[in-house]
Amino acid sequence: MEKHKESIDYTREMLAFIDKSPSPFHVIANLSERLVGAGFLRLSETENWKVEPGGSYFVTRNDSSLIAFCVPQSGKDRACRGFHMAAVHSDSPTFKIKEHPEEVTDRRYLKLNTEKYGGMILSTWLDRPLSVAGRVVIEEQAEETGRAALVTRLVDLDRDTLVIPNVAIHMNRDMNKGVEYNPQIDMLPLYGDVQQRAENGAAEDGNAEDANEKDANEKEMFLAEIAEAVGVQPEQILGHDLFLYVRDKGRIFGRNGEFVLSPKLDDLQSVYAAMEAFVTAAPKEFISLCAVFDNEEVGSRTRQGADSTFLEDTLERICEALCGACGENSAKTLMKRWIADSFLISADNAHAVHPNHPEKADPTNRPYLNSGIVIKYHGGQKYTTDAVSTAKMKALCKRAGVPYQTYANRSDIAGGSTLGNLSAGHVPVASVDIGMPQLAMHSAVETGGALDTAYAVKVLQEFFRE
Description:
By secondary structure, the chain is of the alpha/beta class. It has 2 domains: about 1-90 and about 265-465, 3-Layer(aba) Sandwich (Aminopeptidase); about 95-245, Aminopeptidase i, Domain 2 (Roll), CATH 2.30.250. The protein is about 25% helix and about 25% strand. It is built from 10 helices and 20 strands. It has a 9-stranded mixed beta sheet, sandwiched between helices. β2 and β3 form a beta hairpin. The model is unreliable at about 195-205 (pLDDT under 50).
C-alpha cells in the first residue's frame, strides 16, 4: 500500500480523531478547536451576527451539533450563487447511563443502569473494556455577575472502567444457537466489587439499617468518580449526559494494510472527511457549509438533529446578514433564490458486500471496500438521490479523480434512512446521499477500507471549491 501513502495518512488522522472523540460533545469540542485554529469566528445563536464576504464562521447547538460556513470573497466579477452543503452526524449507537445509575447485586457487584441509544448489535459490546464520556452540568458563581450560572463540562474517565460480561457457555449450552439479549438484564456493565464488612455485613448481626446505609454509600461511587474527574463535588452535578464507549483503539490491518477496524466509523469517518475537506477548500461562487448533526441514530427529531430548524435557522441568519452586500432588499427572497441553486451532500456510511453473506446485497448494486464513494438510492426516498443529484455527484467524482459505486437495498430487505431527507423537509434543496462502504454497521467496532477516507476528502474538496 506504499503507493497509497497519502490515503493511509488520512486514515491515520481519522482514527486519531475518533480516538479523542468518545462522545458527540467531544466531537463538537474537537471540531470547534480545529475551526478556531483555522481562523474561524465562533458565533452564538443568542447574539447578533456580523457575517461578511470572505469570512469564515461556525455556530453550535446543544454542544453536540455544529454548522460551519465560509463566505466567498465577492468582487466585481464574482457574486455568491447559493450554498454547497455537506451533512454528517456526530452520534453513534451506544448505551446511555440513566439517572441514579448505581445498582448493587448480591451486595457484592456494583453495576450501572443503562439504556440503549440507537440500534446497536448488542452482542458486540460484551467482554470488551469500556469507559464513560459525555458532559455534566454544574452550578457555579459567574465571576462577572456574581450570580449562579449553569456550566457544562466535558468528562472522559479515559480508563478501562467497565465490562459487560457474557454468560459462560456452561450455563447456556444454546449460546451458539442464537441468543436474544435483554437490555435491562444482560447488558448492564460491571463497575466495581463492593467489599463486605469484616463480619460479613452488619445485616448478619441484625443491623439492617447499617447494611442499607453501606449499600447507599457504595452506590455513590460512580458519580463521585465523575465529579472528581471534572473537579467538583458530587452534589454540584445537577444533570448529566453520559455514554459508554469502547476502549478498543482503531487500527489498520489486512494482508497489505488495506482495511481499517475502529469504533464509530459510522459516522465519524464521514465527519472527519467532511471537515477536512471543508477547512482545506476555499469556496469561489457558493457559500460552503458543513453541518454536523446529533441524534441521527435515534431519529433526528431533537432541537439539534437534522430534523430540527438548526440548518434552516442558520441559513436565514446568513441571508439576513448578507442581503445588503448582495444587493437584495429582502433576506427571505435572497434565501429562496440561493436555495434554488444550492446542493446538499448527505454523507453517512453505506453497507459493503459482506464476505460471508454476499447474498444480503442487491444483485446489481454491490459496493466493496476501497472501491470508491458509494452513491445511495432508495425508491421510497429514504435516500434523496435522484437522476439530477446522482449526475452531479458522478461529475464531481470524475473531476476529483475518485471512483464511485452504487448502493440500493435488496427489494425484500428493509433499510435505514439518514440525514438528507430529514434536512430537505426544512430546507428544500437538491441533495444526494453518499457514504463510505463498511462492514458490520452498528457493531461496537466496524470495518472499512483504508483508502476510502481519502476518496471522500478529495471529492468533498472538489465540491467545496466551487
